[in-house]
Amino acid sequence: MAAPAARPDAMRRHNLALILAQVHRDGALTRAELTARLGLSRSTIGALVTDLVELGLVEESVPSGGTRAGRPSHLVGPSLSGPYVVAVDVDVTQVTLAAIGLGGELRARQAIVLDAAPTPEQAAALIVESIPTLVQAAGLSGTPVSIGVSVPGTVDRHTGTVGFAPNLAWRDAKFGTILADLAAPHVPVLIGNDADLAVLAEHSRGTAREHSDVVFLIGRIGVGAGIIVNGVPLRGNHGHAGEIGHNVVDPGGPDCHCGKRGCLETFVGDHALLDLAGRPLTGADQETEKVFAAARTGDERALEAVRTVAASLGQALGLLVNTLNPELIVLGGSFAGVLAIARENIEAALDRYVFNSPGEQVVLSEPSLGEDSALIGAAEIAFAQLIADPLGGRALAAR
Amino acid sequence: MAAPAARPDAMRRHNLALILAQVHRDGALTRAELTARLGLSRSTIGALVTDLVELGLVEESVPSGGTRAGRPSHLVGPSLSGPYVVAVDVDVTQVTLAAIGLGGELRARQAIVLDAAPTPEQAAALIVESIPTLVQAAGLSGTPVSIGVSVPGTVDRHTGTVGFAPNLAWRDAKFGTILADLAAPHVPVLIGNDADLAVLAEHSRGTAREHSDVVFLIGRIGVGAGIIVNGVPLRGNHGHAGEIGHNVVDPGGPDCHCGKRGCLETFVGDHALLDLAGRPLTGADQETEKVFAAARTGDERALEAVRTVAASLGQALGLLVNTLNPELIVLGGSFAGVLAIARENIEAALDRYVFNSPGEQVVLSEPSLGEDSALIGAAEIAFAQLIADPLGGRALAAR
User: Fold this and answer.
1) Are residues A57 and A136 in the same domain?
2) Smallest CA–CA separation between B168 and chain A, in Å?
3) CA-CA distance, B213 to B233, in Å (whole number)?
4) pTM
5) Does a structural domain hold residue B202?
6) Which of A374, B140, B194, B359 has an alpha carbon within 20 to 30 A of A219's alpha carbon?
């Protein structure tokens, strides 16, 4: 089906959502900027902003200073006393929580290191127990608009069920329901895949902002891709797009724990890097950091390990480029470290495996949100419903 | 950027385009159906249809018969005397042309067998020389709205330049410009990749109609994929998405003419099938058909060749499913024959290489437009501008 037909009442809701989306994404904008961006009259913008102020979603201020004659254009920014969400990044050895306001403002952040991978029930209990402290640290009150959670596995975004998260050992875990049952009543819970949320965040407010075709490839113990196509997330039919860690890249390669041989993960996952560098496979994040530190100081074995992973990574990127032809590939997790040290090895392998005409290049970049890409992405899905319909179920006020 | 803000004059143009798109895609619809589908009033639909009739794009008729009381709802269908496009499928050994009207109505079709792959200049001359006969055979007159051409290679859709079509031996060929210079003045020329156009056609009016995440994998001498994501074509940054024929699936595999080893094409392309079956590599289309015919009558060598290709094809589909998680994969060209004979071998390999949770299945299907998928897709891109803006540069008539 094409876009729906336009009607006047739908126009007002639509335009309210457009303004809130602009302010959420870009921060404070002048009324004049909003007028220019949306192609609406100054008086229409004024009325819509008044609606959003009354809803407690935006605040207006008059910029100080200024030397031009005439009335200065009011600044419209996210309300500092407005709604917030709780964003969570569940990983194998750490759970990170944050309270985040409109505009992506991180108001408080808390990281909890774990001894072992949590069960879904343990993760849900830990999140719910941690929220009061987090909210207090942020100087906030009331309940969050919703809770958004990143997990390293496949997710059914409609039900919040985690289909398979191999390194958490979760399978068909009704995590969204478990968490919603423990959380405050009427607080929606949204669950997303880590790579999907990471690319969403980098696309909304990170290094991929101006790009419409992007891959975020995340390297941890497992490997996954988050993909943006035509400016929109590629989720696929069951929400499992980008699960490329167990793509077989060499049928003669090493045995994989999944039962196949030569999966991508066996060439570029954290354990492959640690094994090549002769490091223990426990505490992967700290150990991979030691490999990168050693490589930077010229340690031959560490450097060779990073370069070997870089070459395999470049080959994998070649296959992704042939399939998706992205403009930008963001390399996150341990791949950011590999990129910083061995970009030339990645690019040489990529050139060899890409079909495209010579001279066409994809840009490789580190994430600009650092380790927080997936966390910020969890906040984005938690805010999405409010941004799409700032009025919610409320009727339009009379004008 | 989000969708643009809505304004009244833009609404009328938008709604005209919506109606034309419905009629182009689905054929004749009653005014009542249009009213229900678009959520507009009956009088608004009536006025918009009158505009489209005046533009010569649709025709109204009163259905005969009917036993219900009351005035019957007028049928709104594509105008039979309305605009047409010329669609062309350029392949290595054949050029196929068709005159196609709104609604995808094929009015005349002509296939020209070639002795050798044409140069861009030869292909353009052949097309332009063939158009008058084609138009006459269709009982049409005047110039086409535009010319849409399918080629088996990478295409820059903005310039119409073919970056690389290995089996035509075209590289950086300004084919769109060459053809536009030869064609009648002011007739736009649109060029597309064969797999991209094939998936567009199957999505618009074929087996993929009700699906939003689709891959069309075409097997000829080369191999390519056309991809639909979120209901929209995935083209990528340079329009080269889906160029997976030279993805290395086994670094220890056979040498490929591209200089690498173990490309997908060396396992599943027409030459791989013919080689396994002990057939000559010339006249690939006819020879692959002979392999399928022999396999269907129980010839062991032919059957084994088809099953071997089927297993490699299933593995390749596994990688695509992990990356894109489509709902439907359409197998065209020689892959349609492989599917008809060895579906179980494809599916067994696919199951083995897919990461998804058990029980989730992608549907494998033959194209419902047969060999004409790419040709019909070429007509779709040729009509796209008219469908998007039925008024073109014309002003809105007063109401």
Assistant:
1) no
2) 15
3) 9
4) 0.87
5) no
6) B359
